[in-house]
Predict the 3D structure of the following.
Amino acid sequence: MKVLVIGSGGREHAIAWKLLQSARVQQVFVAPGNGGTRADARLSTVSGVASGDFTALADFAQAEKIALTVVGPEGPLAAGVVDLFRARGLRVFGPTQAAAQLESSKAFAKAFMQRHGIPTAAHATFTDAAAAHAHIELHGAPIVIKADGLAAGKGVVVATTLEQAHAAIDAMLQPHAAGVMHNEGGARVVIEEFLAGEEASFIVLCDGKNVLSLATSQDHKRLLDHDEGPNTGGMGAYSPAPVVTPNVHARVMQDIIHPTIAGMAKDGVPFTGFLYAGLMIDAQGQPRTVEFNCRLGDPETQPILMRLKSDLFELLLRAADGRLDGAELQWDRRTALGVVMAAHGYPQAPRLGDRITGLPAEAADAMVFHAGTALEDAAGGGTVTAGGRVLCVTALGDSVKLAQQRAYEVLDGIRFNGAQFRRDIGHRAIKR
Ligand code: AMP
Ligand code: GLY
């Protein structure tokens, strides 16, 4: 069978790489893909279709008799690509536009969690700046200010002082706040109680009713070592995350995941797709939901899929058809750890066009997933940077420490001008 993967990041490279391993998959198309998916002779690139042109993508899927389309990023999901494919009778895996609001609208997600008793930070939503300013004066810092709309991980300010909080409100309530796609009704901010604890990424596969949890993972959101510097889309991840003990896992399923899937179905917007709960786990092991995403995490997917032994195609096919009950997942017992190499100037203004050298051949225990890369020419020339997060160097090891060593050993052979990466990915799991 033929499959189509929509997206261009490291997550989509990993999804495509994993789908290739299925005995039932004959060809994997990626639209638009990146330098890494283009350089891989086993993958096919959909050319001549703009990534936002869903009608053209559906035409392609129809013409090529694609058995399953997998949507990687939140943008197309929030814009309704699944609804369009379904309306045309094409099999697609991902949430509908209405279900994707769990991620695309913080206000929707918060109201949903409140309605269904799902543990999360207390919050209030504002369109009026004066009311928002008064609210934080009342509550004090630390406090969290979020833009309501998709902002690629950059629409959140964890303010440690009231000055920072006031400035964030003013910035986010501007009609054209930098990098934020406002939802209908214009600019809105969500102001949240600050949650203390350790974060983890908890991702499940859903068919609208049944749920299968993937291996746990932990991301590193800050740009610099020791969790300093600005927030990014994620600078590295590893799986499993020891903070999610069996007891915490059971609480997350019972208090967060099952009520969410049941709540969405009850509200008439059943969730089919990957549901990603960003968790904050406090010192007592009590999990709270920081946010929902309606897709796999990037870079979490890269280590998670390196550990997945089951056939991803089979699973997604079953999920898309509502047949997940009874499905099971097999995992490599080792730890997988991925380190992101980002471009000079990321996250504010990534520089493009830096030449990348030293990319290694694929190995059984190490894989370099591409994100913001491009090939210099159609003939396959060199690889250059073409986005903020450039590569995710991912390796398996018998412990976090060994996976970390192996990932950095591979990373140290790769060069491009201005490369930024952290040296401490996995540090929380190593300290334990
Ligand atoms: P979000 O986009 O909602 O995931 O927020 C981005 C990051 O901000 C999260 O990964 C957390 O590190 C931090 N954050 C968001 N909300 C809170 C909160 N209520 N308390 C503490 N940290 C938060
Ligand atoms: N790594 C965080 C995310 O994918 O949202």
